[in-house]
Design goal:
The protein has about 240 residues and is of the alpha+beta class. The protein has six helices and ten strands; from the N terminus they run H-E-E-E-H-E-H-E-E-H-E-H-E-E-E-H. Strands 3-4-7-10-8 form a five-stranded mixed β-barrel. A two-stranded antiparallel sheet has the order 5-6. Helix 1 (about 1-25) runs antiparallel to helix 6.
């Protein structure tokens, strides 16, 4: 019985360690050597081929969308915010179900210099914020090569793909820079149409027509997290039942 308990304790501790490591490492940002060539390119923005304003319905709520430019960006996800987060009261108050997620992306010069790995990123409800270790890091960072992107999507499979993206993933977003709103309650939001603005209104609002994860980050740690947690719970339960 003693040997059995020792083995169960060892299994519990190993699974707990793996789970803790997975929580720590599953959103690590990749090194520059692992970045795909597409992420060194500037976003594409074109006025041609932009459709007329249209409406879409999500969960019986109708939104008016006004596309302004065709837009395509390949970037590295450095932070994110899901609009269905329990802490996000603004999207619930405005009944904004079309903006499902914000992705903060870096590309170009911030990849080439490697400065993104020396910078702390995090998202609030509508913004992406950065913290720099020192002035030298701040001077190397290019604000023109970072954007917070409000992603709008109505089609179910597309929404699922967007929601699965995580920090560390390299993604491609295609769609339209757009203004949108909900006429029934007067809610409306615009979009930035340049990359070098700052402050309120500087985020890109993209009505997404195509979303791809070009390369996922840390696949081992993401795959092991749930099994490790389940294993720890199973070993703990077995110990309690002995």
């Amino acid at each position: 019985l003693r040997d059995r308990k020792s083995l169960l304790r060892l299994g519990f501790l190993l699974c707990l360690l793996l789970w803790a490591l997975a929580l720590l490492l599953d959103d690590r940002l990749p090194p520059p050597a692992a970045i795909l060539p597409a992420l060194y390119q500037e976003p594409l923005q074109e006025a041609e081929g932009v459709p007329a304003p249209f409406t879409v319905t999500v969960k019986k709520l109708t939104y008016a969308v006004k596309p302004l430019f065709r837009y395509e960006i390949a970037g590295l996800v450095v932070s994110q915010h899901r609009s269905d987060s329990l802490l996000d009261i603004h999207h619930r108050r405005w009944q904004d179900l079309l903006n499902i997620k914000d992705l903060c992306l870096v590309w170009g010069r911030n990849i080439e210099s490697g400065v993104y790995r020396e910078t702390k990123f995090w998202n609030r409800d509508f913004t992406c914020l950065c913290r720099f270790a020192d002035e030298a890091t701040l001077r190397r960072f290019s604000g023109r090569h970072l954007s917070n992107n409000h992603l709008l999507a109505a089609e179910r499979a597309l929404r699922r793909r967007i929601l699965r993206a995580r920090p560390g993933d390299q993604v491609l977003v295609r769609g339209f820079l757009a203004e949108y709103g909900q006429p029934a309650n007067g809610f409306a939001r615009g979009t930035s149409i340049v990359r070098d603005d700052t402050g309120n209104g500087a985020c890109e609002t993209i009505y997404v027509t195509d979303f791809r994860v070009l390369r996922r980050a840390n696949p081992f740690w993401r795959a092991i997290r749930l099994p490790a947690f389940a294993g720890a719970a199973a070993f703990l339960l077995a110990l309690l039942l002995i």
